[in-house]
Amino acid sequence: MYLQFRDDVEDALISALEALDLPTDDLGVEDPPEGVDAVLASSAAFRLAGEVGAPPPQVAGKIADEIDAGEYELIEDAAAQGPYVNFVPSDAYYEQTAEEAQRADFGHLEPTGQQVVVEHTSANPTGPVHVGRARNPIVGDAVARVLSFAGHDVDKHYYVNDAGRQMAVFTWAYETYDEEDLDSDPERDKADYDLVRYYRKGNNFLENGDPDEVEAAEDEIQAIMQGLEEGDEATYERVQEVVDTVLGGMRESLDRLPAEFDEFVKETRFLRDGSADDVVSRLKELDEAVYEEDAWQLDLDEFDIEKNFVFLRSDGTTLYATRDLAHHEWKFDNYDRAVTVLGEDHKLQARQMNATLDLLGNDTDQLRQVIYSYVNLPEGKMSTRAGTGIDLDDLLDEAIDRAREEVETRLDDRIRDDDLTDEDVERIAEQVGIGAVRYDIVSKQPTKAITFEWDRALDFEAQSAPYVQYVHARCCGILDEAGLETAPDSFDASLLETDAERELLEVVARFPAVIEESAEDLEPHVVATYTREIAETFNTFYRECPVLSDDVDDDLRDARLALVSASKHAVGNALQVLGVAAPRSM
Question: In percent, how much of the chain has pLDDT > 70?
Answer without folding.
Answer: 97
